[in-house]
């Protein structure tokens, strides 16, 4: 497996984080509506005619299904995020710092320069550590079941 696969694997992290945030926002919007509809369903169940009740229940069921689907997607995304974090956590300390800074950090512009100061290494040494870490990640993810399929899905 090549370092490109390791880079692609790590680059998923940011996208997965953003996707979780979007799902959280969608769930946040749906939940109060679901609560209100359930309250109305209980309060007005006797007063509604049969057609209105069917439409109401269909709408309520649709929102409930959407909420469940969002929840399931979020669990899957969180699983994939945790998988990436566990792979990075398995690296030695310096390799982990370099990979976190280059691929999992929001401050990607100055990663090498920051690490030069923090680790007190030359820039070329930082990049050698990065290459070594990517090779380690490639070996790790090669043994993760279904890992290559997850690349194709994203």
Describe this protein with a few key phrases:
mainly alpha
How would you describe this protein?
The protein has 154 residues and is mainly α. The protein has one domain. Helices cover 84% and strands 0% of the residues. It is elongated.
Write the layout of secondary structure elements.
Blueprint: H1 3-44, H2 50-89, H3 93-104, H4 111-119, H5 123-142, H6 147-153
Helix pairs in contact: 1-2, 1-5, 3-4, 3-5
Give a brief outline of the structure.
With 154 residues, the protein is mostly helical.
Low-confidence runs (pLDDT<50, min 5 residues)? Answer: 147-154
Span from first to last CA?
Answer: 19 Å
> How many individual helices?
6
Number of domains: 1
Q: Which strand-content bin applies to the residues? A: under 5%
What is the 3D shape?
Answer: elongated
Please give the number of β-strands. Answer: 0
